[in-house]
Structures are given as C-alpha cells and as structure tokens.
Amino acid sequence: MKRNTIQKHIIMETLREMNCHASAGMVYEEINRQYPTISKATVYRVLTEAAEAGELLRLRFAETDDRFDITLPPHAHITCRCCGAVQDVTFKTPWNPIENLADNAGFTPERYHIELIGLCPACNSLKKAE
Amino acid sequence: MKRNTIQKHIIMETLREMNCHASAGMVYEEINRQYPTISKATVYRVLTEAAEAGELLRLRFAETDDRFDITLPPHAHITCRCCGAVQDVTFKTPWNPIENLADNAGFTPERYHIELIGLCPACNSLKKAE
DNA sequence: TCCTTAATAAGAATAGTTCCTAAATAAATT
DNA sequence: AATTTATTTAGGAACTATTCTTATTAAGGA
User: Fold this and answer.
1) Dihedral angle, C-alpha A91, A50, A14, A65, nearest 10 °
2) Tell me, what's the pLDDT at B101?
3) Nearest residue for C5, CA–C1'
C-alpha cells in the first residue's frame, strides 16, 4: 500500500513553493538547505513515482534537465538556450499536431510537446552587454 | 587552420550511411566495429563541431539522447517512448509556433521543435503481445 | 622533406541520475 | 499500547552519456 511519508510531503510542498518547472536536482538543493538529512535518491524517486502516479507532470526538455510541474494540462514551453530557464507560453490559435498529422511513419502518437528555444530576458541583455 | 582528417571523413560517412537520427554513441559503436582505433572522444567532438559549423543538425530530444541529422531544414519528429526510435513526420497544414505566440513571457524565441511521443510499430506490437 | 600546429587516442574526470542494502518507520493487527 | 509486516529511507556506490586532459600523431604549407 502507498504510504504518506514526511519526506514525500516536504518534497511535494517544496516543488509547489518553487512555483514550477524545477528539476529534481533543483528541488534537492532547495530541500537540502532546510532538511539536510533527506537524501538525493529519495527526492529523485519520489518525484519519479509521483509523475508515474499522475500527481505531477514530468517534462523532458531538449536544452536542459527533466523538469517537474504541478500544472497538469499540457502546455507549450519556451526554454533559454543559455541558462535553461523555462516559461509557459500560449498561442493565438490552438493547434494539435496529432490531429494534423499527414504521415505518422507507422508510429502511434500518444502525446506531444511544443518547445520554443531562445533567450530569456536576463541572458538576452547579457548578450547585448558583450 | 581547419584540417581534413581521415577520422572526420569516416565519421561523416558513417552518419550518412546510417541514414539519420543517430546519436553520437550509436555512430561510435558503428564505427568501432570497422575502425576500433577511432576513439569515442573524437566521434563526440567531430559531431559537435560539425553541428556548430552548420554541416549537420543536432537534435535534442526529450525521450532519448541527442541525435545528429544530415537533413538540414527544420522538421518535426516522433520518438518512441519505449525504444527511443526517431522518425520524421509531416503535417497537413504547416504551422509556425513563433508566429502564433500570444505571450512570449519576455523571451526571445529563436527556433522551435515539435515533438510527438508515442510507440513505434515494433514496440506497439510487443505491447499487444504482453 | 621539414616544420608548425591542429587533431588524435586513450583513459580519467565529470554530471546527472539510479541502484543497493541495512536500518528506520508507517500502517495494520492484536 | 505493543507487535507485526512491508514499504520507505539514507547514504553511498554504481552507472551512463559526455567532456576533458595530455602525450602523440599527422595535415598541409614552406
């Protein structure tokens, strides 16, 4: 049976407080400040299991580590190619690539991810300063 | 000055013969059979440099390792969540997420990647067999 | 052919993540 | 409340993909 442990509670609360798009490593570092006895393996395992149980979303980005997200409905993201920052983005007209497939190469599509890559405001101004 | 080495020639030819979407590790393994003296570091470095020089495309997928692709124009892909196979896909109506952005969260978009995730035909039939 | 310098082979190092095992602990049972 | 049991944990080892280091090799111009 599934158990409610203090560790899991702290991990989920920390992810919530960090307000999204955190990687397992980021969550671990944040937790480690306040609760140095919670192990890295526990953070990775709890986040992975919660994602498998559908309690949160595991986002696998191209330019950076896996991120965990408590906002469940699928949404598009933009990542900074420089610092790895992640933000949600929305479109003027919604578009579903699965419904628009002309050729699926024999694959069975299940989900999709639209990812934009660019520069975040901070990295953008750093680049201008160079 | 840039030099033309046998190693680079073999690496690029192997990638071409493998007919796309190979990871650096896959290219290394393929080369290692015929030319066991070519080192792993050389394969990784040559592919990375060729991508930086625009000679090929480095695709960074969510569900699998980085892949290198000699087909240059941007195109959408579908990856198998089970075995990591990659295929190109096309859409009935083309759609550019950058032009359709309603909110860019302060980011400067540069490029995008549309990725579908699902099952390849082989993994699909394996699943049915279970 | 000789010389300069970039590219190489081999393996060590790194980073992010997962695995392993004894010990701790939560829930169920008494 | 005490006992039982099965899951979860901490801590570190192990693993994997990739990059770095350094002595050696070889490309291409003179």
Assistant:
1) -60
2) 94
3) B1
